Amino acid sequence: MLNFLFVGIGAAFGGMTRYGISVWMKNKWKTNFPFATFIINLSGSFFSWLACFK
Predict the structure, then answer these.
(1) Which top-rank group of organisms is this from (predicted)?
(2) How far is CA 28 from CA 1, 20, 31, 49, 53, in A?
(3) Virtual torsion, Cα 8, 5, 3, 52, nearest 10 deg
(4) How many domains does the chain have?
(5) Shortest CA distance to 39 belongs to which of 25, 53, 49?
(6) Buried (b) or exposed (e) across 7-23, using 16+ Cβ within 10 A?
(7) Is the dihedral of CA 42, 7, 9, 11 positive or negative?
(8) What is the rounded distance in angstroms from the CA atom of residue 28 to the CA atom of residue 32?
(9) How many other CB atoms are found less than 10 A from the CB of residue 36?
């Protein structure tokens, strides 16, 4: 049951971080390309790779 709590906390933190970076980048670069989603997914893939192979 504790695993569900940790997953929920991680999902909440990830969602808030994704939203914050999205708002920040939308104000910084006036473009329609979803740079925030691209960067978040890229960094998430990198950290997942680190967690698996470290």
Answers:
(1) Bacteria
(2) 41, 12, 9, 29, 34
(3) 40
(4) 1
(5) 25
(6) eeeeeeeeeeebeebbe
(7) positive
(8) 12
(9) 19
Residue 44: give the domain boundaries: 15-53
pLDDT per position as a tens digit, 1-54: 888 999 999 899 988 988 888 888 888 888 778 887 888 889 889 988 998 886
Q: Give the type of residue at 7.
A: V
Which amino acid is located at 43 in the chain? S
Per the listing, tokens 């990830």 go with 14
Both tokens assigned to 36? 């925030």
